[in-house]
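Cross-posted from the bioinformatics board.
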Amino acid sequence: MRSLRKTLLLAILVSVVLVLALLHSWPTRAYTTVDVWQRPGPIVERHLEERLPEADHRLGNIPFRVRDSVAILLARNGCVCEGESGGVNLPFAQLLFPRVSAHPLHTAFEASELEEMKRRRAKEYKSFQKRSESLADVLIIAEANNPLQYPTQGVEVRPLKTIIIPGRVRHTFVKVDCCPTVKINMTATLGTLNVAAEVDGVKIKGDGEMHMTLSSSLLPNLNRQLQFVTYTNTLFHPSTADTVHFETEGHQAIFSIKIRHGVTPKLYNTGSKGEYNVSALVTIATKTFLRYDKLQDLIDSVRRYYPTVTIVIADDSENPKTISGPYIEHYIMPFGKGWFAGRNLAVSQVTTKYVLWVDDDFIFTANTKLEKLVDVLERTTLDLVGGAVREATGYTATYRQTISIEPGEEDGDCLHMRRGFHHVIQGFPNCVVTDGVINFFLARTDKVQQVGFDPRLTRVAHLEFFIDGLGSLHVGSCDDVIVNHATKIKLPWVTQSESDKTYAKFRYPPASSDATHTKNGLLFFKNRFQCLTHN
Amino acid sequence: MRSLRKTLLLAILVSVVLVLALLHSWPTRAYTTVDVWQRPGPIVERHLEERLPEADHRLGNIPFRVRDSVAILLARNGCVCEGESGGVNLPFAQLLFPRVSAHPLHTAFEASELEEMKRRRAKEYKSFQKRSESLADVLIIAEANNPLQYPTQGVEVRPLKTIIIPGRVRHTFVKVDCCPTVKINMTATLGTLNVAAEVDGVKIKGDGEMHMTLSSSLLPNLNRQLQFVTYTNTLFHPSTADTVHFETEGHQAIFSIKIRHGVTPKLYNTGSKGEYNVSALVTIATKTFLRYDKLQDLIDSVRRYYPTVTIVIADDSENPKTISGPYIEHYIMPFGKGWFAGRNLAVSQVTTKYVLWVDDDFIFTANTKLEKLVDVLERTTLDLVGGAVREATGYTATYRQTISIEPGEEDGDCLHMRRGFHHVIQGFPNCVVTDGVINFFLARTDKVQQVGFDPRLTRVAHLEFFIDGLGSLHVGSCDDVIVNHATKIKLPWVTQSESDKTYAKFRYPPASSDATHTKNGLLFFKNRFQCLTHN
């Protein structure tokens, strides 16, 4: 009997454990499938237009006179690759009156490969569009004389969470007859609608579903109920938008609910309070190639003014030498990996709030006051501020460029670069707002890392960084923080060193390289430009 | 006489050149100043609320019954740092029923430094908010019974450019009396209003300024004129929004115009058409530290299946060895620079469309079919897809995690991580959508570079990358692409090598490190969390 009892107890224990294990693995929610394929979906576009009254057609008969000065500012259909022609043909003409030149970019490719490149580019672009378009950018028009009051902007919910729809949705129905039933139909697509509280006298149908209806003969009660309408996102996506429709008495109200996590901050510890602690706030980053003497001059000059600031050096020289010293981080790369790859490497290692980019042949002087640049970024919303570079001749350059993109059609967009800037910065009379600057700048580390230096650019490149940063970098330039540039003047009686010759071979390459990794090939394929104009 | 004529001609030539030089340097536009200081500006918030009729106050008297099942889903005011308490205390309880534990993050700091850390964090966060808030996210409510029809979403202009305001702005004024004058006042802040064409019978005032008025006694003509209203952005900012007000007969219409460049694509050349060319599409990236034997095993296993795919290796070992072979890129870092610094370095060098992350102790097998992962990313909108890692015991893990952030108040937000996923992916039955995955994944290079691996994380870290990617990475996980993990099982009779011992010292560090560079210290300061809960 005892052994029987033991067996029984054991059997029960085993069953209990098995049941618990089964319960644990039992799916506690039925996972729905989600369609994340790259195919076009329904878009709410001009939905209301079909419902507009006939009056619009009558407007077509009313004549108008075009105002050329304004009409000429509007975007054309597609962009045309043209520069400025003619102009005075004096000896100093290009210097005094720099003309705009236009460069069609498809010329980066051999005729034999161009069609294939265009086909691939169009395919990649179509994918990109599907991934980046959002219902939150679609044109929505508010109807006139809508009895509904509703929110048109600013409604947000975190993925899979619930909110009360804000904006005191109200129905201002003004019929005089007593007590007709007023009904509101509400629809969502990526989530469900519900009510957080119930009000007497209001009939609710479809609560917890994508389509909900509220109806009542008591308008104040209906409006009270409307204050408790909730939206719950049920179809997960980290950053998207749902379009919600409210409909009543033949009137429509359409608005978007943004579904997103919210922007997580990426803050940096700034070191001790009080004055700017440059060593805690700034890391100097540079790339070097076969110019250890110039690099050492740079380091020595930095140390005269900033003995403890960290210097990050990306090095793709052929036989790398050791660079030692406190607060120096030296990174060895495969030989000749490239200019922008080295820049991307250097900034990828920065752990301070700001990064200062310098070329390896700069020299710090008493005018190279980094505190001034830090002050600009600490007190404004700029992300990057350039300084000035002084040549041996005394000529000082800030290389300010404005950049704009004119949308094109299938052939691609047009990229326009012009010397100059947009505005002077209030409170910083030596500083301006622009789009591109010289290769001596202080920037927010997280923004520079986010934009990045494309490692496909192996040799000559500069403004490509600012083109990639368009729309995300707010760029400034100050001409009162100056760094010197070691002279490039080649004196005829001084023989060029071997490393100088090798350097020149890489720095000023011949035209025969992999087409999509050249500057123009990359602008054509990667950024989908057809034309570049500049002065 | 002749010398006089020559002198005269010379004088004229010099004067001409001087005049030309003067004209060239003459400012051709008066540059306005722009205020980019970090200070709060006027925000259109609840603008209409003050103007709502008294009726709203009467609604307050109408009673309601709370629906708990819905009300409980709404966000609380601030978040609370609590896990799950109690639960069955069986031997396998945590395994069968993993409980949620909560970790307050301020504990990363000594009591003596905590106040200063909180103060600095609050200051940095305030700056961050000023840089990231946008008028395009502010709550706007459309009035009921507005005679104006206007666009509420989707109006965009490129910086300093001009558009016609879309949406067929119309006035549906319906008064019966003959010919009263109808007036519309329009206001903008970051730009000016104008008309691209003029219509008879409409009086225009303030055209070309920030405040324009159209008035007419002929409604159809006024509506025809409204079709030609233009907006020109005049105050430069690379990404912002202007709030435009239309007012007529006591009614207001408010909407945003987004001012931005548009998203510039970053496309990659995918190699030959036809089947997936893994070598052209994928770069394998890894970081190594004192484990050259395991690294060589990884490389050999990769080469068995993918002889020409590029492998990028970031190496912060103390005495780096040479790793040679075709299609291998070896990067030497300062000794012990760190885990995420190495990951950031490796991905910063990738020039193909996709990057595959592997740890240096993985082994490729016949089940490691990269083509399957490429297929997922080519055909869906996912940015990253994880695979599965098989241990020597046969246990295979995908380490799927869902991540959400609950907004908090001054103490910071609450970060919630749970094992699991959101949905199964339609068409890919072995794949799901989630937020975090194991360290074996294929991802779009541009997205991974944009999110980045924070080099402040020197030793142990994993999900921090996915936390930084929240909202920008669309993450998936497939369990049918498997890589093997070299065994970590330490057999008692096998002596640990010197490098194994050094490795262990770095890999599993003691708790005493720079607080803001620890995992929890960084979550507290950088991302502004107060609490982490997970199961």
